[in-house]
Amino acid sequence: MCAKKIMNPDEWVKQVVKQEEIDKYLIDGKDFIDEELINKQLSENKDPDKQKIRDILQKSLNIERLEPEETAALLNVTDPKMWEEMFEMALKVKRKVYDNRIVFFAPLYCANLCVNSCKYCGFRKENKEEKRRILTMDEIREETKAVVAEGHKRMIAVYGEHPSTAVDYICDSIKAIYSVKEKSKDGTVSGEIRRVNINAAPMSIADLKKLNAAGIGTYQVFQETYHKETYKKVHPAGVKANYRWRLYALHRAMEAGVDDVATGVLFGLANWRFEVMGLLYHAIDLERQFGVGPHTISFPRMTPAIGSDLSKESKFLVSDENTKKLAAILRLSVPYTGIIITAREEPEIKKEIIKVGCTQTDASSRIGIGAYTEALKKLAEHQGDQTDCKQQFTLGDTRSLDAVIREMAEMGMITSFCTAGYRCGRTGDKIMGLLKSCTEGKFCKLNAVLTFREYLEDYASAETKAVGEKVLAKELKEIEAMEFYKKGNLLEKFKENYNRICNGERDIFI
Amino acid sequence: MVKETSLYNDLKKIVDSGTDLKDELNAITEYIYKKYNLRSYFCKIFASRWSFFAGDNDIYLSVKRFKISNEFGLIIEDKNVENEKVEILIKNLKLLLKN
After folding, report:
1. CB of A494 within 8 Å of any CB in chain B?
2. Could you give the ipTM of this predicted complex?
3. Do A422 and B48 touch (CB under 8 A)?
4. Number of C-alpha atoms within 13 angstroms, CB side, residue A453?
5. What does each of the 99 residues of chain B score in pLDDT, given as a tens digit?
6. From the CA of A178, how many Å to the nearest CA of chain B?
7. Where are the domains of chain A?
8. Which among A132, A213, A407, B58 has the fewest CB atoms less than 10 Å away?
9. Which CATH number fits domain A20-27+95-425: 3.30.70.270, 3.30.300.30, 3.20.20.70, 3.40.50.2300?
10. End-to-end CA, chain A
């Protein structure tokens, strides 16, 4: 069998950007980030009075997206007591839309070859300390097996931007991940990844159609920073130097039929308040042009990366306190959008921030290339040590999935591995409609219980099982009492499914 | 057998009279509702992903999934309708949409 011919990276870079696939989304030649306007909105909404803030909070609680002026007002709150109210309201909004669940996933870094020169990233092409590697399909399957063995059902596959790992490689890797079917501890139950999300470079519409056909879950592209001058400074070369190609990556994905898209900012590159406004404008423009905003928003903070001075020295690094604030404001500004906090954060701050409305997180994450299988080999030598493992950045939370799930359960939250919506047509504008009407959360509650039951049966330690059973008992009691579930035969079907899972069946959902 | 043929003919008539696949599938879900009192929608299948394509956008009940072809799946309310009736419906839809 002949290996596929890979284009020279320098030549490849020149042909990636399709200018017409940027221009078609511009309005009067302008993109949706008007820096002057954002700065004006931030400066004109200083010292907002309490009543105005409370009115805005009420709007969030009605599950309406905020207007930029309203988000700007929230960003300018200085009164600590008012912040406490905002944190409380953010949690209320989250509970109303998503209930008390937290969805878990694991990242899988497939390759670290990259044509870009991002100053904050360990994968940048000039970083000679980075050992370059592309996982083969066999290696991807081995990595997936290690992730599945922890109990994960959802994965985000991550790729650098390089001709060797362009769309065909990504499609093959998705197939490889989905092909893994593992037996659990008792040797009878099949473990598998049921939803593969992708974090990959911006692509053309034609390539995105290929990705869509491969069955991806969410397509995630972080803008990194919406501040144009900063963007230019930190992305001096490569495809990524093109701000607008990246800015409209999710628009192209929507056009290609990928109906769940995700954005994010690498906080620490520019002023955090400005970046929150950028994220909001991104959501608004997607809603305006496609009727549906992002499925999730992530807010990673810059952490030290090997070979990146910027990641250690930026003057815009965001404090723990401000990270909590920006997470709460994102929750309030786009009440029906998932908010992801990653294992970059230390356990303590992660625990704090989850309380203001996050819906997803990763656990047991390894971000080196091939790191899950290597970690298994090295486990006996030095558990949890990341220092000898080359990676894009460093993690703050290196605990096992079991330990993080236990902590969530102790906080009264239910872990969910639900992938039902994605396999039942509840995606894109359909799921957004259900989220806005606070209906999806009710389905999620049922599916969270079903998938948590599976986890407790198959993977949980005795300690986690003990805490988890208490959470499940409470959930089951609530489900029995809620009017919504008495419609039709929903409750009856749920109970039937729950019993089937207790009796050994798997992957049953509502 | 007569009933099966009649069902197939009804479905074929809907498809033949349509000009656009989405409209045809919408019309089929309306037919299913009238005939069986079951709400339903079609999804486009992309490997594991089933994306809403046509039909009732407003189902809040437990559902069942049926793969109709490599490209399309049908999702129907999981109600107490005789299994045999549903099986015949799916069989006919598969026949109709196999191409």
Report:
1. yes
2. 0.84
3. yes
4. 25
5. 555 688 999 999 999 988 899 999 999 999 999 999 999 999 999 988 999 999 987 776 778 899 999 999 999 988 877 888 999 999 999 999 875
6. 8
7. 20-27+95-425, 35-90, 440-502
8. B58
9. 3.20.20.70
10. 44
